[in-house]
Design a protein that fits this description.
42% of the residues lie in helices and 18% in strands. By secondary structure, the chain is of the alpha/beta class. The protein has two domains: 6-211, inorganic pyrophosphatase (n-terminal core) (Alpha-Beta Complex), CATH 3.90.1640.10; 217-339, Roll (Diaminopimelate Epimerase, Chain A, domain 1), CATH 3.10.310. Strand 9 and strand 10 form a beta hairpin. Bound molecules: manganese (II) ion.
Length: 340
């Protein structure tokens, strides 16, 4: 069991039971932890309030997680911006999951900041915006927001708060944020939470199959192309990076979520310590960083582009043209790692 501040649990429980309109929100480009924690929280909160509740996300939902219960009830900003904004402004309780500041909700940042609602944060990223949120369950030591949500909800409402569909959501988020228990899982609590979730008959092999064995053929062909033609290795620095232009992506008809996970291929090489994926989008360049040890990619992403994340996995957006972004990253990595 994790020790939460008892008075914070009591405050959160009364916020939920007294609320008139509740919004749950998670971050842009949602991953399994964002969607899993959003849908699990929806089920738990719904059981303890009579208030209407909306789940909103700032960007389109990857099909990958369509197997999770409640997926079809999520409203996305691209579907209906006005409705999402309205929901945030009219809510008297907003629960934010797996994000640490307003920019993480993209086009909904202003409405999130302007809303007069009580704002509760459940998250495992560093440096939460303590001016934005009134009640914070922000613990970076946790593997995932889903793990944190498991311990938090069972501390609030007991073990019965987690039913089988909720357990599937939470387990999926834990698995995506730990790469199926291969990183961010130093603490035994993550295995204890997983063990309790598996005890609820959630079909872990089926969840693995849904999340991992999901490639389209063109996506696999694109990966082959990227590895053969768009992977640069800086041997002396133990760095590898992918650079993918919009034209490359169009040729294989891949969408941004198809490139999710490609950056991890860099670290599969024994010699590589830092891996980067640089991917052109219509109005910006998205950059993902990964590291094995001894190099804080979150700090690097922040310094270069105002990005952030975790020490071993971080991301950023560049407003420079694609070619200049690639050059800048190579130059800055060279200088950082040469003096490192
Ligand atoms: Mn997460």
């Amino acid at each position: 069991m994790i020790d939460f501040d008892k008075s914070n649990l009591t405050i959160f429980k009364s916020l939920i039971s007294d609320a008139k309109k509740i919004v749950l929100i998670s971050h842009t480009n949602p991953d399994g932890d964002a969607i899993g924690s959003l849908l699990a929280s929806k089920r738990v909160v719904e059981a303890h309030t009579s208030a209407p509740l909306s789940c909103i996300l700032p960007s389109p939902l990857p099909d990958l997680f369509a197997f999770l219960p409640g997926y079809n009830q999520i409203i996305t900003d691209n579907q209906d911006h006005t409705r999402c904004e309205q929901a945030l402004l009219e809510a008297d309780l907003i629960i934010a999951l797996d994000l640490n500041n307003a920019p993480r909700v993209d086009n909904l940042a202003q409405a999130l900041s302007d809303s007069k609602a009580h704002k509760v944060l459940i998250d495992h990223h560093h440096s939460p915006d303590t001016n934005l949120f009134h009640l914070l369950f922000s613990i970076p030591e946790f593997s995932s927001t889903c793990e944190l949500a498991y311990w938090l909800f069972t501390a609030m409402y007991g073990d019965d708060a987690i039913d089988q569909p909720t357990a599937r959501c939470l387990y999926s988020g834990i698995c995506t944020d730990t790469g199926f228990f291969s990183y961010s899982c130093e603490s035994p609590t993550v295995f204890e939470a997983a063990s309790r979730l598996v005890a609820l008959d959630i079909d872990p092999a089926g969840i693995h199959d849904e999340i991992s064995n999901c490639f389209s053929i063109n996506r696999m062909e694109f990966y082959g192309y990227a590895i053969s033609n768009r992977l640069k290795i800086l041997h002396d620095l133990h760095v590898a990076y992918f650079y993918l232009s919009l034209e490359d992506q169009r040729k294989f008809a891949v969408v941004p979520s198809d490139m999710e996970g490609l950056v991890n291929y860099t670290l599969m090489m024994k010699e590589i310590e830092v891996g980067v994926l640089i991917r052109e989008e219509p109005n910006r360049v998205k950059v993902s960083f990964r590291a094995k040890k001894d190099f804080d990619v979150s700090d690097f992403a922040h310094r270069l582009f105002g990005g952030g994340g975790h020490t071993k996995a971080a991301g950023a957006n560049s407003t420079l043209p694609f070619d200049q972004t690639v050059e800048l990253i190579e130059r800055e990595l060279t200088s950082a790692l040469t003096t490192h």
